[in-house]
Structures are given as C-alpha cells and as structure tokens.
Design goal:
The protein is of the alpha/beta class. It has one domain: Creatininase (Rossmann fold), CATH 3.40.50.10310. The protein is built from 8 helices and 4 strands, in the order αβαβααβαβααα. The protein has helices at 12-20, 44-60, 76-79, 92-109, 124-140, 159-165, 180-189, 234-256; strands at 25-30, 63-64, 113-118, 147-152. The chain binds zinc ion and manganese (II) ion. Zinc ion (ZN) is lined by residues 36, 44-45, 177, 182.
Length: 258
C-alpha cells in the first residue's frame, strides 16, 4: 500500500515494490516557467499539470513523477511570446531529450505504462518526439510492452463544461493563456498564489493566422494575458478540474486497462 502518490516523497524500497508488480503506471507532468500576467506566478503550467495528475492518480493507482518545470519557447500566439520577463525556456532538443531520458529511466525501473500530462501548449510536438524515441529504444532493447500516452489536459474539457465556464462565449484555446481557464483552475487549486486585484481586463488578443520572427511585443497585449481572466472563479475551476480528471481517468483506463 502506497503512503503517497508523489514519487518524490516515496522511498526507493516502496517504489521498487510498486514497480515489481508489473502493473506500475507513472504520470509525468510537464509545464513551463513562463509569465502568466500580473495576477499569477511563473509556474502555472507545471503546477496545473501536476495538480491534474495528482487528481487522477488515485483512480489509476498511479504515481506522479516530479514535473518537468521548463518548457519549449513561449510563442506569441499561444503564450504571449518568449521575449517577456520571467519566461525561461528550453530549446527543442533539450526538451526532447529530457522526456526521452526520463521515460527510459522509468522503463528501466520496470514501469511499462507512462502518461505524459502536458500543461504548456508549445511543448506538445517535442514531448511526442521524446516519447517516440524512448518507446523505440525500449522496444529495440526487448521491452516489448513499453507504451506512452501523451495528452494536453485542456483537451479533456467537454462541451457542457465549456458552456458553463464561458457563458458569454468561448474565444478559443489559443487565447486562454493567463485567461479564465488557467486562472479558474489556479483559484480552485492554489488560491493563495492568485491576486485577482491585479487581473487585467482587456478584449481577447487579435491574433494573425501566422507567426513573424523576430517577435514583436506590440502584437500581443502588454499584460501578458491573451484574454481577460476577469470571469475566473474557483467554482469554474472545480468544473474544469472534474471534467479533466474524469476524462483522463477514462482515457488512460481504456488505453492501459485498470
Ligand atoms: Zn499557461
Ligand atoms: Mn504555457
């Protein structure tokens, strides 16, 4: 019986007992260190990925690995841009190899089922590459049953929840950086880290359907948020968390069995 779902809090002997069952399942949260406006901290993406993983862990009999807390470069059309103060990013190669290395270590320990839970939009394709390299290498080494499920948590928000959280209309996931989704989840999970008196109020960013390099700070709101978080509440965060947790538990159970 595990005394904690957090891998970093578990002793190595209990961990070995857990992996030796052959049914071990590890959830790997990935985020970023990235500005999230004046009202929220830099660590939001990793905090939320970790909280979502923790919420799903009990039902999945899973362990939550320490989060990868740096992510791929923030981009203007999804995170406000990498030029902003505080944003501290990795190159693609570094992120790919972090994921590959960590996944291969879990496979070496006897874990065969890994779920990468992404909390930072720009990470996704590089997480995919890292997972793909790890699964190929593990299988080439004879670990034939090694598998990875990769997901971004917001993809589990269903239409009904979306309507309840955005009664005035949903502007799209691309402008949700620092907006109602992340702020509501933070108000539900880490209210002491949010200062709504500093929340900016402005219309959603007008984004072009293309990118321009180098980044031009004038193309996105100076608040660092791509839409206003003014409608965020802990109650909306609860709806979002429940939808995401239930959706992830269902998906992972159906892919891996329980
Ligand atoms: Zn974020
Ligand atoms: Mn992000």
């Amino acid at each position: 019986m595990l005394t904690t779902r957090q891998l970093e809090d578990l002793d190595a002997h209990s961990y070995q007992d857990y992996t030796s069952t052959g049914h071990g399942l590890v959830l790997l949260p990935t985020g970023a260190t990235e500005q999230h406006g004046p009202h929220m901290p830099l660590g939001v993406d990793a905090m939320l990925a970790r909280a979502v993983a923790t919420a799903a862990a009990e039902d999945l009999d899973a362990l939550v690995a320490p989060a990868l807390s740096y992510g791929y470069k923030s981009q203007p059309r999804s995170g406000g841009g990498n030029h902003r103060p505080g944003t501290t990013s990795l190159s693609a190669q570094t992120l790919i190899l972090q994921v590959r290395d960590v996944a291969l270590e879990f496979f070496r320990h006897g874990i065969r089922r890994l779920v990468v839970i992404n909390g930072h939009f720009e990470n996704y394709q590089f997480l995919y590459e890292g997972a793909d390299l790890a699964v190929r290498e593990a299988r080439a080494a004879g670990l034939d049953d090694s598998r990875v499920v990769l997901l971004s948590y917001w993809d589990f928000v269903d239409d009904r929840t979306l309507e309840a959280v955005f009664p005035e209309g949903f502007h799209g996931w691309d402008v949700e950086h620092g907006g109602v989704l992340e702020t509501s989840l933070m108000l539900r999970l880490h209210p002491e880290k949010v200062d709504m008196s500093r929340a900016p109020s402005h219309p959603p960013a007008q984004l072009t359907p293309y990118d321009v390099l180098p980044e031009d700070p004038a193309r996105t709101p100076s608040s660092g948020c791509l839409s206003s978080p003014a409608g965020a509440t802990a109650e909306r965060g609860e709806l979002l968390l429940n939808a995401v947790r239930d959706g992830i538990v269902r998906a992972v159970s159906s892919e891996f069995g329980k």
